[in-house]
Amino acid sequence: MTTELEPVAEFRARARVWLRDNLPPAPPDQGPPDSKEEWDRARELQRMLHDGGFAGICFPEEYGGLGLTPAHQQAFTKESYAYEMPVILNVPTLSICAATLVDLGTEEQKREYLPAVLRGDIVLVQLLSEPRGGSDLAGLTTRAERDGDRWILNGSKIWSSGAYAADYGLCLARTNWEVPKHRGLTMFLVPIGAAGVTVQRIKQVTGSTEFCQEFFDDVVLADEAVIGQVDNGWEAASRLLYHERSAIGGTSPYISGARPHIGGEESPILDIARDSGQLDDIRVREDIGEARAMQVVRDQLIDHITRSVLAGELPPAAGSITRLFSAENSWLQTDLAVKVAGAAAATHAPGDPVDTARIGTDFLFRAAWSLAGGSTEIARTVISERVLGMPREHAADRDVPFNEVKRGR
Ligand SMILES: Cc1cc2nc3c(=O)[nH]c(=O)nc-3n(C[C@H](O)[C@H](O)[C@H](O)COP(=O)(O)OP(=O)(O)OC[C@H]3O[C@@H](n4cnc5c(N)ncnc54)[C@H](O)[C@@H]3O)c2cc1C
């Protein structure tokens, strides 16, 4: 029996009232979370959404979600812009890790973890990239070895956003060295607090310590920690990367309360030009126009790709198009903002008439948008091979057992 879904307009009206009555106004944007307190606050807000009946809008009902459509999610998100929301739980917890669990988790895993995630009790992170490089993901060397009915994990992961505040990480490890690289991997759900896991924070040029490196020394994992099938971790990784591209590119239905793509904030350039008295400058007006035009194109592109993938007119890999565009657009927006702000971008002090607080750090961080979620070079390869159907690029290690592949030490 199918039950009628609540019409989007009614859902939106109900959300508007609930948000107004329950959530405080949005605080000023403070950049990436850098303290445990910010994560605790996000968990608390997620709990409020859950108890209010607005968590996991597109997650299946049987695992604690609402089972509604992307249109319901978009409507809720638009209503929520003005309120304090647990936006740091969107990526990677909800839109990447939990989404992968929905696709590949066992019934037990889904029942155990998904409702807890939607209640804000569990924060998930991705443990994929390694110190030797993140682009050649299938060439990773963190290993999990069988020991009776358990696994022993050794190795290191890096650039894991927010791992210091997380409960579990989805960790891709090598479980078979005698087959080509894509065929010997397994995805595990690793408790960050397990014995043998060491988490170190990394300080970036912006001052943020959001990134972490993890070291695994004989970490014991049960068979129940395997996501998907043993040695078939590339399928799990592909699913996870699909969700990552969707999240970064702006087509994920699991993101709530934030503009669903990198660089999604509205461009500050108009405010800067107004506050600094440059609105009549013809060159500044051109910059404002260029920034605005790119935002409009981005929104249209996201809409078009989302609909085309859902309708089966484009392959899921088309998420790489929006991922690439979002990165290019983020660079452009940041560069134009610095151009218009001039020296104020570097010298902001609290109370300055022109609010340029974030511009300098955004500028320093902008290279990250070409790397996060897989680099833009890799996105171009994905688009050429898997969207346009061009020949695959040469790989010296294709079909070679991994233990015979030459590697640097
Ligand atoms: C904001 C942010 C958040 C992140 N969060 C996480 C996270 O939570 N978990 C996680 O596991 N990782 C995370 N990462 C890491 C990210 O996935 C990697 O940075 C990315 O995959 C690239 O890997 P790398 O930095 O090791 O660069 P490398 O793989 O060493 O590549 C270096 C350069 O070479 C280029 N290159 C490499 N191979 C090719 C090729 N075949 N063709 C053309 N060019 C190539 C790359 O494009 C890049 O420009 C995050 C990164 C950022 C910036």
From TrEMBL:
Q: Which keywords, in A-to-Z order, does the entry hold?
A: FAD, Flavoprotein, Oxidoreductase
- Annotated TM spans: none
Q: Note the superkingdom of the native organism.
A: Bacteria
Q: Which GO terms describe its cellular component?
A: plasma membrane
Matching Gene3D superfamilies: Acyl-CoA dehydrogenase/oxidase, N-terminal domain, Butyryl-CoA Dehydrogenase, subunit A, domain 2, Butyryl-CoA Dehydrogenase, subunit A, domain 3
The answer to whether UniProt assigns keyword Chaperone to this entry is no
Q: Which InterPro entries match?
A: Acyl-CoA_Oxase/DH_mid-dom, Acyl-CoA_Oxase/DH_mid-dom_sf, AcylCo_DH-like_C, AcylCoA_DH/ox_N, AcylCoA_DH/ox_N_sf, AcylCoA_DH/oxidase_NM_dom_sf, Mycobact_Acyl-CoA_DH
The protein's name = Acyl-CoA dehydrogenase
Start and end residues of each Acyl-CoA dehydrogenase/oxidase N-terminal domain: 10-121
What Pfam family is a match for this entry? Acyl-CoA_dh_M
Query: Taking every annotated instance into account, which residue ranges of this chain make up the domain Acyl-CoA oxidase/dehydrogenase middle?
Result: 128-219
Q: Does the keyword Transcription apply?
A: no
Cofactors demanded by this protein: FAD
Q: Name one GO molecular function term.
A: flavin adenine dinucleotide binding
